[in-house]
Design the sequence.
């Protein structure tokens, strides 16, 4: 298998000296094919991983790709601390959704009010700016002291994490609306309320939605961090369990599931975005 | 000139922009008096940065004059309002609305029932030649088509005066030429009082009943007024057309 890759790399050198030979022409064409290069990238990475897991000094704690896959299949059938893989996945997702919903339910309206009212902005912004640079994870200890190691403390961290990008983006989204659009709607006879409905909200919406996307991915990061400390369920817990029981395949398997879930969430949201704001293409003027 | 037939007029309008809390003052317009007659197509010509867009924004009510007044039907203009329709150089369409959504916005704000405003908007969409594009979003349209939407949107609100701020300034020469012809056609079928601002003398002679030129440096003030007594439709290559165009160019010394 590895000699095959080497021969491809050999062909890459040939690429600099194109000949009329049809066989070489085919190889060059293949090397310009994006999908083929994607394949090379993935296969190459898996091979490198396999090699590292078998022959380097980290091999003892480095599972091979195949072992990770087997471990993942195993935990879909066997329960860890009372839950199978899907159970742990749902435990994490549920925390994210609750925390994200609460965080944006506070952040978005607050951001809108700050953008619309100078007085509210002056009242809230100094305090917000004070808290903004604190990484949400730095709240973990305090959160556990306040709420114990149950669901509440984890959701609290996520709320903090989701609130900040939700607020900042809805605030900026509204403030950075093209003033020309207000001129246009006022010339058409809009009163204050109509300006809000027909310009402020729709024009600010894409930025607001982008804020929600960021909030969701931050929330996902927060839940894992929170689950690393004193949790009995969730993907973060699965990873810690793998560490405590010396099962590297479980750790890496957990990481893979985390990545796939995060990808699916982002993908779904970008699809939702296409539906809720089909005009988006033009907005960054 | 009969006083009664004046539709919109500027009386000794001056504008000074203040920056840095008033310590820097930039005089933009100085003592401008212009009267636009009922159903007249008036073109204001001046080079870039002569304050002509500011003058139009003052007539629109989006800026307040530092001194002087703007009167519409004898009443002072105090702010933006639906009795004046503004067409923007940068189109400024609502990107989240379709062509129909943009054009019907004015009647919708005024509370016109859906069926009625749809019919009305459809008429103006057809007038500007955009049938079949009712459900397109602005980003799907070319510059010329966007500005057609901008014109239809202003017309659909049935304003007393149309104000056009260098509406074709961002178009390529070919499209611009076409849009000038279209403007003449639309204006002929829906006669309104029009104030049209441009930096292009050729465009001014092609479109205007009357042309007011502004001085080429700040603060802007009126230089000359020309009556364009050429029959419509006009030809850019007619001898009278060229003569007038030449005369205006000579007398205003616009470096264009």
Sequence:
């Amino acid at each position: 298998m590895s000699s095959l890759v080497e021969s491809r790399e050999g062909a890459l050198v040939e690429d600099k000296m194109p000949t009329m030979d049809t066989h070489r022409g085919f190889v060059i064409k293949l090397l310009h094919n994006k999908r083929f290069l994607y394949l090379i990238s993935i296969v190459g990475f898996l091979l490198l991983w396999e090699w590292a897991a078998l022959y380097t000094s980290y091999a003892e704690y480095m599972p091979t790709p195949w072992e990770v896959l087997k471990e993942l299949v195993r935990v879909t059938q066997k329960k860890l601390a009372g839950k199978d893989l899907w159970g742990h996945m749902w435990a994490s997702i549920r925390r994210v959704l609750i925390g994200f919903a609460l965080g944006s339910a506070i952040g978005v309206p607050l951001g809108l009010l700050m953008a619309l009212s100078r007085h509210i902005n002056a009242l809230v912004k100094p305090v917000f700016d004070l808290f903004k640079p604190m990484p949400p994870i730095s709240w973990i200890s305090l959160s556990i002291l306040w709420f114990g190691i149950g669901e509440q403390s984890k959701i609290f961290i996520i709320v903090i994490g989701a609130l900040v990008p939700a607020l900042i983006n809805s605030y900026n989204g509204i403030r950075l609306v093209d003033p020309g659009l207000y001129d246009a709607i006022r010339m058409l006879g809009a009163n204050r309320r109509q300006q809000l409905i027909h310009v402020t909200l729709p024009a600010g919406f894409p930025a607001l939605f982008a804020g929600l996307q960021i909030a969701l991915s931050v929330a996902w990061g927060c839940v894992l961090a929170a689950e690393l400390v004193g949790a009995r369920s969730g993907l973060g817990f699965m990873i810690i369990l793998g560490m405590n029981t010396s099962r590297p395949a479980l750790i890496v398997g957990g990481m893979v599931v985390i990545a796939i879930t995060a990808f699916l969430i982002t993908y779904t949201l970008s699809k939702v975005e296409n539906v809720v704001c089909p005009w988006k293409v033009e907005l960054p003027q | 000139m009969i006083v009664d037939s004046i539709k919109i007029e500027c009386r000794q309008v001056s504008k000074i922009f203040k920056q840095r809390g008033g310590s820097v003052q930039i005089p933009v317009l100085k003592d401008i008096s212009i009267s636009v007659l009922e159903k007249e197509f008036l073109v204001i010509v001046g080079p870039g940065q002569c304050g002509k867009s500011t003058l139009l924004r003052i007539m629109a009510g989006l800026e307040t004059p530092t001194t002087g007044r703007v009167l519409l039907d004898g009443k002072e203009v105090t702010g933006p309002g639906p009795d004046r329709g503004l067409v923007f150089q940068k189109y400024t369409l609502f990107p989240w609305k379709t062509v129909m959504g943009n054009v019907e916005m004015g009647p919708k704000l005024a509370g016109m029932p859906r069926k009625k405003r749809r019919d009305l908007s459809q008429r103006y969409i057809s007038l500007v030649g955009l049938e079949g594009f009712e459900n397109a979003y602005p980003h799907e349209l070319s510059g010329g088509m966007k500005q057609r939407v901008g014109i239809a949107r202003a017309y659909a609100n049935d304003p007393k005066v149309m104000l056009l701020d260098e509406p074709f300034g961002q178009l390529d020469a070919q499209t611009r030429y076409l849009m000038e012809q279209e403007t003449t056609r639309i204006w002929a079928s829906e006669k309104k009082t029009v104030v049209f601002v441009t930096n292009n003398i050729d465009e001014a002679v092609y479109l205007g009943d009357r042309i007011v030129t502004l001085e080429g440096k700040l603060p802007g003030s009126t230089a000359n007024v020309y009556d364009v007594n050429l029959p419509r439709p006009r030809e850019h290559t007619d001898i009278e057309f060229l003569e007038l165009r030449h005369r205006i160019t000579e007398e205003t010394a616009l470096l264009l």
